[in-house]
């Protein structure tokens, strides 16, 4: 009897394709996604985008920039990328434009090498002099500044050997009683030889060794984004979790179409003057308003309980909230139109929403993912919605800067609704 009971349960599982998919396919898919996100590919670390501004333009500063560019863990940019292939090269970054780029999210870190750096590049110990490089960072990414700081010290040791030796001799001459004329001549001879080798490319490539010096170059850190935020990550999680559950709510609410089709109500409604297009449009409006009200409730809860700065960002929230709600509502209607039963809808929506949420940043910040996963996330509603809400609540950008996210979300909503309308023709034929 025990064997027959187990066999009956197995047959029932095979017939329920949705449960079968959730039992075997979903765990494998999620394992693969998070293995790509957290797994080390060939032992390398994710590359950090770094903006470098060289105000000094000395031989020493150029050597340091070359050393940073040679680091495989960094993507160094000294000027914005050209918008078109044949367009002229944009002007190099300045301190002001680099700070604006970090605020806009183009890169998490920027380095500004000041004028006079080539004269005093090295700082030996606390208060040891040296020109301070300014590090501008976005506090939402706490890992990137640490990586850049370590690689900067490494580049200073490996890419500027002549400058380090020259500066070291100055300190030795000052604090050790001075060199004799013969010693000074020998030191100058060795320094000139070292500079010639560095100029020929034999040394100072930035790739020698893995030791990163601590404090060789003085650095002043300044947060240009998030410094005055009381609850810096609350807005991110409100948007990330909110969008994921909006997708579940929208698919569940749109499932009323399947209930109406099963009960015969849909056929009676379509026999009146209500067309399928008007019916779907009405449900789209209802689901959009329902999703938007849910977002309002979540962000108001964050404002009341977790001190989220909500009231000063209401215009941006309304724009992003309505666009996000429209996109998820159209997504839910498409799923309901494509499925034949509630069981199919539940299985398919769970599978797709969890995949979209993991890749799109609802479960793990996209900026910490590998570059390939970040690009894959752009195929999801989650990524565009989270990016828009981040611009509003984290970067304090005006509503006009939301146009890429608004355009994409509206386009997604329109396309999904058009496809849903075409798929729903099966009910008209029936």
Automatic annotation (TrEMBL):
Question: Where would you find the membrane-spanning parts of this chain?
Answer: 20-39, 236-258, 279-304, 316-338, 345-364, 402-420
Keyword Calcium tagged = no
Location within or outside the cell? Cell membrane
Q: Which GO terms describe its molecular function?
A: ABC-type transporter activity
- Ranges for domain ABC-2 type transporter transmembrane: 20-420
Q: Which GO terms describe its cellular component?
A: plasma membrane
UniProt keyword annotations, A-Z: Cell membrane, Membrane, Transmembrane, Transmembrane helix
InterPro entries, per this entry? Answer: ABC-2_transporter_component (IPR051449), ABC2_TM (IPR013525)
Bilayer topology: Multi-pass membrane protein
Q: Which PANTHER family match?
A: MEMBRANE COMPONENT OF ABC TRANSPORTER YHHJ-RELATED, TRANSPORT PERMEASE PROTEIN
Protein name, per record: ABC multidrug efflux pump, inner membrane subunit
Native source species: Candidatus Sulfuritelmatomonas gaucii
Q: What is the lineage of its organism?
A: Bacteria, Pseudomonadati, Acidobacteriota, Terriglobia, Terriglobales
């Amino acid at each position: 009897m025990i064997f027959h009971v187990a066999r009956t349960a197995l047959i029932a599982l095979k017939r329920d394709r949705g449960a079968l998919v959730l039992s075997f396919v979903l765990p494998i898919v999620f394992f693969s996604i998070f293995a790509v996100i957290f797994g080390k590919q060939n032992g390398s670390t994710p590359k950090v985008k770094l903006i470098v501004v060289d105000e000094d333009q000395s031989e020493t500063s150029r050597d340091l920039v070359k050393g940073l560019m040679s680091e495989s863990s960094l993507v160094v940019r000294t000027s914005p990328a050209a918008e078109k292939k044949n367009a002229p090269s944009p002007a190099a970054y300045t301190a002001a434009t680099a700070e604006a780029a970090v605020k806009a999210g183009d890169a998490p870190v920027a380095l500004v090498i000041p004028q006079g750096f080539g004269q005093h590049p090295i700082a030996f110990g606390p208060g040891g002099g040296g020109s301070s490089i300014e590090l501008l960072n976005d506090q939402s990414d706490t890992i990137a500044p640490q990586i850049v700081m370590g690689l900067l010290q490494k580049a200073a040791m490996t890419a500027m050997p002549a400058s380090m030796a020259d500066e070291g001799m100055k300190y030795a001459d000052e604090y050790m009683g001075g060199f004799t004329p013969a010693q000074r001549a020998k030191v100058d001879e060795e320094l000139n030889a070292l500079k010639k080798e560095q100029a020929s490319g034999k040394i100072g490539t930035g790739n020698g060794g893995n030791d990163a010096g601590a404090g060789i170059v003085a650095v002043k850190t300044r947060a240009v984004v998030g410094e005055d935020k009381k609850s810096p990550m609350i807005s991110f999680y409100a948007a990330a979790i909110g969008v994921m559950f909006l997708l579940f709510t929208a698919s569940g609410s749109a499932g009323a179409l399947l209930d109406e089709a099963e009960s015969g109500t849909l056929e009676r409604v379509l026999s009146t003057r209500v067309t399928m297009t008007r019916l779907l449009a009405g449900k789209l409006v209802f689901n959009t308003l329902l999703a938007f009200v849910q977002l309002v409730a979540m962000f108001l809860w964050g404002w009341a309980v977790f001190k989220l700065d909500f009231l000063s960002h209401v215009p941006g929230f309304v724009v992003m909230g309505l666009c996000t709600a429209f996109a998820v509502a159209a997504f839910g209607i498409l799923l309901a139109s494509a499925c034949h039963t509630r069981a199919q809808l539940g299985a398919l929506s769970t599978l797709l929403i969890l995949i979209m949420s993991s890749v799109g940043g609802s479960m793990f910040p996209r900026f910490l993912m590998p570059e390939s996963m970040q690009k894959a996330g752009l195929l999801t509603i989650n990524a565009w919605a989270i990016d828009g809400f981040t611009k509003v609540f984290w970067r304090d950008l005006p509503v006009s800067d939301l146009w890429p996210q608004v355009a994409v979300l509206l386009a997604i909503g329109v396309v999904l609704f058009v496809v849903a309308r075409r798929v729903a023709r099966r009910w008209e034929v029936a």
